[in-house]
Design brief:
Strand 3, helix 9 and strand 4 form a beta-alpha-beta unit. The protein starts with a helix and ends with a helix. It contains twelve helices and five strands. A five-stranded parallel beta sheet has the order 2-3-4-1-5, sandwiched between helices. With about 280 residues, the protein is an alpha/beta fold. Helix 1 runs antiparallel to helix 5 and helix 8 runs parallel beside helix 9.
Length: about 280
């Protein structure tokens, strides 16, 4: 078996796994319980919300650096040499060790495997269909979305898809300016900062407050254009509540088609929250 045949068989195996996972998820959606006995406990106990007094770092994410780090510190950070890419096996092991997130882990592993096949096909000269790496993470706050976004940035760098693997996290205030014409400039600067890595937009639905919100629409239009102009240098992950994100994806005709990868983050169970905080 030559290398091309091996890659094609690997791709077929990934597609078969993703199809089976989709069928399992459909069963859960229709009947309220997973089809397979090994489905994660968190997929059944979605009604168990995180405790109100749970720490903000309950998703396991490392705290962000202070926003005041500017000037010389930023320049020093930009000039610092990048560490070598991590091994994809180590990153998969880290994913597996996260508490809870059973179905999320399955979805993320599928994305990793598909991206691996895509990269191998590219390297061996096999034709590749368009494959979007952009994602939508839906669910309540504190369910691990930022943590997984940070991991995906490292994964894509490990695979050689992204050159830097940094995560740039913003919300509406980081993209929308207070005056006409400035929003496009502000959003473009954020996109430029994220090149080579992942742009993570938290509460992305807040960018669309109706057709009269010209500032938000300007940010969305600039984002879509930036994704097209830098398709090989940028991955965008949108995060927010499930229903609100469904509405948001209708704000621009190009949004939904650019975000085919959707991952639902269920609430942690009470036992999982206890494991996280102890």
């Amino acid at each position: 078996m030559d290398k091309k045949d091996e890659i094609i068989l690997q791709q077929l195996d990934v597609i078969r796994t993703m199809t089976q996972n989709n069928l399992n998820r459909m069963g859960s959606d229709f009947w309220g319980a997973p089809l397979t006995p090994d489905a994660p406990k968190s997929a059944v106990l979605k009604e168990v919300a995180p405790k109100a007094n749970a720490p903000k770092s309950a998703d396991g994410a490392k705290p962000n650096k202070p926003a005041a780090s500017t000037g010389a510190d930023e320049k020093k950070e930009e000039e610092a040499p990048l560490p070598p890419p991590e091994k994809i096996e180590d990153l998969k092991k880290e994913l597996d060790n996260y508490i809870g997130l059973g179905e999320v882990k399955r979805e993320v592993n599928n994305l990793i495997n598909m991206a691996t096949v895509f990269k191998r096909r590219e390297e061996t000269g096999l034709p590749n269909a368009d494959f979007s790496l952009h994602m939508v993470f839906t669910g309540n706050p504190g369910t691990g979305k930022t943590m997984i976004a940070r991991l995906m940035a490292r994964v894509y760098r490990s695979l050689g898809i992204l050159s830097k693997g940094q995560l740039v996290e913003v919300d509406r205030s980081g993209l929308v300016a207070g005056y006409v014409g400035q929003t496009a400039i502000k959003t473009s600067k954020v996109i430029e900062k994220a090149l080579g890595g992942v742009l993570f937009i938290d509460e992305a639905y807040s960018l669309y407050r109706g057709e009269q919100d010209s500032f938000g629409l300007e940010a969305i239009d600039t984002l879509v254009k930036g994704m097209e102009d830098h398709r090989d240098e940028l991955v965008v992950i949108l995060a927010g509540y499930t229903k609100e994100m469904e509405v948001f994806l209708t704000a621009n005709s190009g949004l939904a088609s650019r975000f085919p990868n959707k991952v639902e983050f269920p609430d942690y169970t009470a036992d999982e929250l206890l494991d996280i905080t102890t």
